[in-house]
Design brief:
By secondary structure, this protein is an alpha/beta fold. The chain is built from twelve helices and 14 strands.
Length: 369
């Protein structure tokens, strides 16, 4: 007999990490035959299915911002009145205007904390718009949540400070599949060259300005021209003609040894992880930075941007060095020292490993079902 009604909403979700999170939630909750689950989605074809899961499809949800506003704050309320759910879980960042015994919101977009630079008006306009949009709409109904769910402590603390939300009303729910960096079976490699005698840099990324690809290119330029280091190669998982940003990169850095891989498979990503000498991660906006977790199993050096998400994603990773968001010389120095086998002073965490917000890893436990 069905005795609990659960609604999960996320009609904006179509791919990537948010889709994985949504499907993980459906998969876990559907294991209990006593739950009746209703998923509000854009296209049910891409979601996990079970006998106790039904779908409400909203294919037009993403077309217009006013339409999103209507769905979240008016249409969903009418659904909640009709179904009367025990639990409503919003996986779409915003807290909907609904009637339910308990409301939970999963937040996975850090654009409101994005520090805008002039170049972003050319290549990151979407993120600037999201920063404004999220800052306005995130505060609506946020205090109605039984728990507001984030991926990292620093985001939870920032949300608490900005919206006066008590820390005991926030939970940290890390993405699934995070690698245990202490696993004895993980690959260990201290080699500085791959079998082709190349110093390989690999950045699995997308063609957005905030991914900060140019700092790697500028550091590469220093090594190439100022230090006469030629046995180096940068591999990027984007196409050189993908958009205005990649065409800008292609034109500005056409003399550098950049390999434009385009979109590649999961296996190809892993193969590149194995070949890479050091891993450089300069993205200026992430809620987790999954490639950092993926690469950590190889126990090779990681040179990362000095931002809060890196601290929590890698925690006590022993082969980590930082550079400031625009410090090309620091990154070039780190790369040069690695190429020349010079000892590098790696950063060890002293204060960021402790959790001060409740951490959970189960939707069932989180919701109290």
């Amino acid at each position: 007999m069905l005795n609990k009604k659960i609604i999960l909403s996320g009609a904006n979700i179509t791919s990537g990490g948010p889709l994985t999170i949504f499907n993980d939630a459906l998969r876990e909750l559907s294991q209990n035959d006593g739950y009746e689950i209703i998923a509000v989605v854009g296209n049910k074809a891409i979601f996990y299915k079970s006998d106790n899961i039904s779908f409400i499809e909203l294919p037009n949800y993403k077309k217009f911002i006013p339409l999103k506003f209507y769905y979240e704050y008016f249409y969903f309320k009418s659904i909640s009145k009709k179904i009367v759910p025990d639990v409503w879980i919003s996986l779409n960042d915003f807290t909907p205007n609904v009637i339910a015994n308990s409301v939970f919101t999963y937040f996975h977009n850090a654009s409101i904390f994005f520090k805008i630079e002039w170049s972003d008006f050319l290549f990151s306009r979407r993120v600037i718009f999201q920063k404004i949009y999220y800052a306005i709409f995130l505060k609506f109904n946020i205090h109605k949540n039984k728990k507001f769910i984030v991926q990292q402590n620093w985001i939870g603390k920032a949300i608490s400070d900005r919206y006066n939300l008590p820390l005991n009303q926030i939970s940290v729910f890390k993405p699934s599949g995070i690698i245990d960096k202490n696993d004895e079976d993980l690959v260990v490699s201290n080699a500085n060259k791959n079998q082709n005698d190349k110093f390989v840099l690999f950045y699995p990324t997308r063609a957005y300005g905030y991914k900060n690809i140019e700092i790697i290119c500028d550091a590469l330029d220093v090594l190439w021209h100022d230090c006469s280091i030629k046995n180096i190669e940068l591999r990027l998982t984007i196409d050189e003609n993908e958009n205005g940003y990649t065409r800008f990169l292609k034109k500005k850095y056409h003399q550098l040894p950049i390999v434009w891989l385009g979109a590649i498979s999961r296996d190809e990503v892993e193969n590149n992880y194995k070949e890479v000498t050091v891993f450089v991660f300069p993205s200026r906006l992430e809620t987790w930075g999954l490639p950092l977790s993926e690469f950590a199993k190889y126990k090779k050096p990681i040179f990362a941007i000095d931002l809060g998400y890196v601290y929590e994603t890698l925690q006590d990773y022993p082969y980590l060095a930082f550079f400031k968001p625009n410090d090309v010389n620091r990154l070039a120095e780190l790369l040069k020292d690695s190429i020349e086998n010079t000892d590098i002073q790696y950063f060890r965490f002293l204060e960021y490993g402790d959790s001060y917000i409740e951490s959970v890893n189960s939707w069932t436990k989180l919701t109290g079902l």
